[in-house]
Amino acid sequence: MDCGHRQGRHQAAIATVRLPVNDRVLIAGAGPVGLVAAAHLARGGVPVTVFEEGADLSEESRASTFHPPTLDMLDDLGAAKPLIVQGLIAPAFQYRTKKHGLLAQFDFDAIADATRHPYRVQCEQSKLTRILADGLRGNPCFDLQFDARVTGLKQDGAGVEVTLDRRGASETHRGRYLIGADGASSVVRRALGVEFEGFTWPDRLLVVSTPFDFHAVIPGLTAVNYVADPERWYFLLQIPGLWRVMFLVNEDASDERVQTREFAQSLMAGVIPGISNYEIDHITLYKVHQRVAKSFREGRAFLIGDAAHINNPLGGMGMNGGIHDAVNLAARLCAVWRGEKPEAELGRYDKQRRLVTLEYIQKTTIQNKKNLESSGDEFRQNLLAIKADPARTREYLLRVSMIASLARAEELG
Ligand SMILES: Cc1cc2nc3c(=O)[nH]c(=O)nc-3n(C[C@H](O)[C@H](O)[C@H](O)COP(=O)(O)OP(=O)(O)OC[C@H]3O[C@@H](n4cnc5c(N)ncnc54)[C@H](O)[C@@H]3O)c2cc1C
Q1: Is the pTM value of this prediction over 0.90?
Q2: What is the CA(99)–ligand 1 centre distance, in A?
Q3: In Å, what is the CA distance from 124 to each residue of 33, 86, 206, 240, 408?
Q4: Cα-to-centroid distance, 10 and ligand 1 (Å)
Q5: Are the C-beta atoms of 230 and 374 separated by less than 8 Å?
Q6: CB-based contacts of 285, cutoff 8 Å, min separation 6
Q7: If you write DSSP's letter for every residue of 245-300 in order, what string do you get?
Q8: Where are the domains of the chain?
């Protein structure tokens, strides 16, 4: 395979060479995180093959919030502009309580000097995977194979051998490195024998989507809203054409029961007094976990995204953190591949990203959940104090935007 036609900003630095067929980076999983890693590698002139178990890219509606530094990273891959075109720009977000209404609004203007995108973008993750795959079409360094389920692996000092199931037939493929971006139930993580430490909440997350126009009934509403309440908190997230309302469900009702329209309507009736019987497009139920892989690297195999860490969706940090993993790892792999950095450089991926995941993503998302379900006074006072102090507002926005987590990763060396 000829990957000699290089693209991107590293063009001048890379010599044109013919590579043996198996001299590639293999990636398990064509979700948003696997494809960001693939885009970074292929644009850096590193040949990459992505194995995806599905027959096509997933259309599942999960993540919908992209944070400012993630947009900066996607912009470097040519993917931010098309994402913004397909999504909604959210220059601010709000906290409300059912009892007090609007508590505080935070505007990203306060961190406009720290990012090229001082706003969140509300857009489904399936739009991003499509944009990335389309952008890579025709790149000789990029190969995406569907119906290719990774089932196992073994590695030696020179490479990794992956076994695949392709419509019932078994195949093996060899690469120089393997990236496991195969989601929460990662086969790669299991095959490496890496523990997924943490816990699963007893509550489940119910996502109800509706075309109902909440702007018409809540004046000044922003596209991202967290509504605290000790009995039934929820958050309201707008994407083009729809609002997604997310509730935690902790009653004894079965999974089947909570996914009925009747149950969803009963929760929706608590959102705006006097409004019920919403038009409902989707009802989806998720388990909620807080888990981090004990190691993000074993030899020549790496874990990124949900394969490495999962968390509750409060704050929108799962996919964003995964994309930060992908960029961190892919940049190091590019440098090692081109001989600019020694192999030891790859150790910094595990060191930086694992600690930041524990210190920021896990801590913040657990605290966000506690805040929204607290009786409210301490959380309310704290939020109002942050809002009243420009220095604390800025520090808070840097933290919730995950810019602080990226700075901390750098500090770790
Ligand atoms: C309701 C909800 C809302 C969320 N909102 C947000 C949000 O706003 N912001 C945010 O940052 N995060 C959010 N998240 C989390 C986010 O969805 C995940 O973190 C994100 O999908 C992780 O991306 P990934 O590429 O690592 O894994 P996935 O999206 O799970 O992709 C994994 C891919 O690997 C493939 N695969 C799996 N096993 C194999 C195998 N053995 N071989 C080959 N391919 C395989 C799968 O088919 C899939 O295509 C939300 C999650 C939920 C449930």
Answers
A1: yes
A2: 34
A3: 14, 9, 17, 9, 28
A4: 29
A5: yes
A6: 204, 205, 206, 207, 249, 255, 258, 259
A7: EEEEE-SS--HHHHTSHHHHHHHHTTTSTT-------EEEEEEEEEEEES-SEETT
A8: 11-60+125-197+290-372
| Distance from C-alpha of 322 to C-alpha of 353, rounded to nearest angstrom | 9
Q: Are 313 and 303 in contact (CB under 8 A)?
A: no
Structure tokens of 318? 């799962």
Radius of gyration, CA atoms only, the chain: 22
Residue of minimum CA distance from atom 26 in ligand 1: 305
Q: How far apart are CA 302 and CA 398, in angstroms?
A: 28
At residue 376, the pLDDT reads 65
Give backbone dihedrals phi and psi of 317, rounded to 5 degrees, phi first.
-110, -10
- Tracing tokens 């953190």 back to the chain, one arrives at 321
Q: Which of 300, 33, 25, 310 is nearest to 181 (CA)?
A: 33
Q: Which two tokens stand for residue 46?
A: 């590193």
Would you say domain 11-60+125-197+290-372 falls under CATH 3.50.50.60?
A: yes
> In 137-259, which ranges are continuous DSSP H helix?
187-192, 255-258
Buried b (16+ CB within 10 A) or exposed e, 289-300: bbbbbebbbbeb
- Ligand 1 center–CA 67 separation, angstroms: 16
How far is residue 377 CA from its own chain's centroid? 31
Please give the pLDDT value at position 19. Answer: 44
Could you identify the atom of ligand 1 that is nearest to the CA of residue 321? 11
> What's the pLDDT at 50?
98
Whose alpha carbon is nearest atom 15 of ligand 1?
318
Distance, CA of 302 to CA of 370 (rounded, Å): 32
- Residue 303: per-residue pLDDT: 98
The residue among 79, 81, 89 whose CA lies nearest residue 36 is 79
How many helices (H) and strands (E) the chain has is answered by 13, 20
46 vs 66: CA distance, rounded Å: 26
**Ranges of the chain whose pLDDT falls below 70:** 1-2, 4-21, 375-376
Ligand 1 centre to CA of 387 (Å) is 33
> What gap in Å lies between CA 24 and CA 28, rounded to an integer?
13
- With contact defined as beta carbons under 8 Å apart, do 136 and 50 qualify? no
Strand, coil or helix: 120? strand
